Request: fold
Amino acid sequence: MVSVVDLAWLVGLIEGDGSVSLKDGKYIMIQIANADLALLQEVRKLVGGHIYEKKLSKSALGKKPTYSWQKVGHKAKILAEALLPLLKGSKKQAYFELLGKPLYQPLEGSRT
Reply:
C-alpha cells in the first residue's frame, strides 16, 4: 500500500515534471519526464508503470539522456483518483475532467 506521503511526493513530481492526459483519446496516461533514471525507477517501484529512454535528436548529441515514466489505462485512472485529494488549482480541475467527474457536486437540496 502506498502512503499519503509517497502520494504527495508523486504529486509534486507530476506537477513539476509530468502530465496527465488522454492517450489515443481514450486512455488516461500519467507521465513524468526526467534525466534522473534512479528517480523514475523509484516511482516505478512505488506505483508500477514503465520507463522509456527518450531518443536524442542529432542536435542534442552530447547532452544527458532523458527518460519517461508512464502509466496508462485503468491502473493510471486508479492512481489519478488516489492523487486527486492532494492536487490544487488547475491541475485538480484537469484531473476531474479527464476522469469524467464533476469538480463541484451540488449541495443536497440546492437547485442548479
